[in-house]
Amino acid sequence: MIHNIALAGCGNVGTALLEILREKRTELSEKYGFNFRVTLITDLMKGTVLDPEGLDLEKIVGSLKEGKGLASFPKGQGTFGELLEKSRATMLAEATPTDLKTGEPGLSHIRAALSRGIHVTTTNKGPVSVAFDELSTLAKSCGAKFRYEGVVMSGTPLLQMLRSGMAGCTVLKLEGILNGTTNFILTKMSDEGSSYAEALEEATSLGYAESDPSGDVQGWDAAGKVSILAKIIFGKDIPVSEVERQGITCVTPEKIKEAFDSGYAVKLIAGLNWVNGMLYAYVTPKEIPFSHPLASIKGATNAVSITSDNLGEVTLIGPGAGRRETGQALLVDLIAMCRD
Amino acid sequence: MIHNIALAGCGNVGTALLEILREKRTELSEKYGFNFRVTLITDLMKGTVLDPEGLDLEKIVGSLKEGKGLASFPKGQGTFGELLEKSRATMLAEATPTDLKTGEPGLSHIRAALSRGIHVTTTNKGPVSVAFDELSTLAKSCGAKFRYEGVVMSGTPLLQMLRSGMAGCTVLKLEGILNGTTNFILTKMSDEGSSYAEALEEATSLGYAESDPSGDVQGWDAAGKVSILAKIIFGKDIPVSEVERQGITCVTPEKIKEAFDSGYAVKLIAGLNWVNGMLYAYVTPKEIPFSHPLASIKGATNAVSITSDNLGEVTLIGPGAGRRETGQALLVDLIAMCRD
Predict the structure, then answer these.
(1) Rounded to an integer, what distance in angstroms lies between the CA atom of residue B45 and that of residue B69?
(2) A102 pLDDT band (50/70/90 cuts)?
């Protein structure tokens, strides 16, 4: 069976997926029985190309690498639903930019695909954040799969691990470092004695932090991820506004030094914890003893420690961002959907 | 559909599996559609009980807890193959004691099951070590699944992660702490300044180390695990005798102190690494910088860092042993086999 892949959003992540698909075509077929064509690529900036017989991936990846875009390939026109139909897509990889308020344009793309029985994988936090229940129900009723490994920790397989690797475990508590920018800043303050302002400046100049860094340093980004995890893992609605949230703006080099001298690292910890039958979500700077793996997490790496009844504590550490790392998240979902 | 589970080996791990199955019957049904009966339990010491309509799990777990064994339940007789047939088993959980030379009795159990199209999960390193290819081929030809999550790191889902969570990644290198006993000893020497002899004595008195500790401290156990991982992950035959192996007997408190003062922890590292197209397997004490998560691994915990093309480094940390932790490994495989 050949799967027809549609890609919505051909920025860094979408392009990385195309690159991996091109590189690994033979391996994916032999190892996982995953045979595919890419039949649709649509991008707000780069336009829409479509060929139900399969676009020339070799040439497209080459053209994207050279910054030439998609102009020289067969054009597609119509609504997104019409494009899906014309392209005979059986799977959609959704990697458009995130809008946490409306979920658009990803939300409409995913609705259009699932309602046609087309499997969807997305790295886009927007639709998962605003319409998780709706999309899960829609997927079920239309016999389509809906997956989203990349919405937390990029391709580090946290969701796969919780769903499959730890199947049968009851998760009691989860604590982790889910925001790379703040961890980069805290690492810099700790290892080099930088002030908060100096460390933030470097994070900004390296492109880790946005020009308005408040989403990261005030803990909003981590709170958003905790809110998503509450929904995905426990089926609980905890809006970002209800996550107890403290950022790192009040952390001083002195506090970090003092903690260090006592054998602790200061980390911005995002957590979910059951207290008296209620799920409690929080983001807060915490002193982690050096004997715990979370204390060793440096720079932009992410990590999560999961406490469960059957396994005690299991910790997963890996990249939290990156174009190829997030492209891998789409790929792993595509392979899973082909295996199911 | 109701799955009929046969359990071979009702020691600590087998009993833990029965306990979890009893506790979670409703949850397993609702969450994973996993409905089951336990129709056969056979144990060299405790005897054999069989009921194709399902043994009374409640009573059996109670009796095992009270140390009363299986004497008061319906007996089964015959060869293991006959028992499987009489019990109408559809899945076998194999948790008999490990014999790394012959693989028995697990090997015969697994052959008997797979050849009848019965899915198998095992925590027993013996059969996986001596007959991995034979059993994988047999499983394939008989349309049965063969899984073995528990042979490395107990229920910490390393194999699931490599197979599913990191599907599409090419593993370039793997390094980890796979022997809890030696890590307990090294942790003790580092944190408390104990001598090797003192630390070993405590490990023995706590039951971590055997009365003959050479399998652990000379690195044989870790080498065996590396050999299994070479086969499972890369399909490569690297016999234990060909693993470059150095144990911890030569590690002194002075060496540990010196490393510590320079920012390193001494750990017994088991590794697989591609060098010039050849897979190289080793077990050796190594100085790990404090900035790396493996340096923070304390006591009997296990950890593996996997370097791959798509994700860079991903580290998984969790229990390496334990009755319930290893029972979980059987459970996760049973759930996966029911889902497939």
Answers:
(1) 9
(2) very high
